[in-house]
Amino acid sequence: MNPAAKATLAQIRQMFSSDPLFRDLMDGRLPSSQTAQFTPAADVYTLKDSYVVLIDLPGVTRKDVHVRLEGDKLVVEGHRGPAPELDPGTRTNHERRWETFSRVFQLPLMLDAPEVSATLESGVLTVVLPKLEGGGRTVPVQ
Length: 142
Description:
alpha+beta
């Protein structure tokens, strides 16, 4: 590349370096949206008396995450909203995104649904899904 083209490219990069769309294009990535969806990392543990699901949700508040059971599925949805602006005129770089998320986990049918609990602490959502005692219930034959 000739020196003039290198200088022009460097000037363009500097002018638009705070624009995420431009930065993605210059780095060879497809542009991402301010409302892009992300998939938070999760671990699932099988314990003696319960299943435990841990999901990384940095920057998500309790009011912005929703956990529900739908038949044999655990559904976790929500969004990570914008940080409060100190002064919009002073921001010199913008990398954080507003994102929605959704995770669906297939569950075994032997759960004690009324006892399911969820807590969000230090950016980690912990969902505890107790197993039914005795492996289920007996159904009398009529």
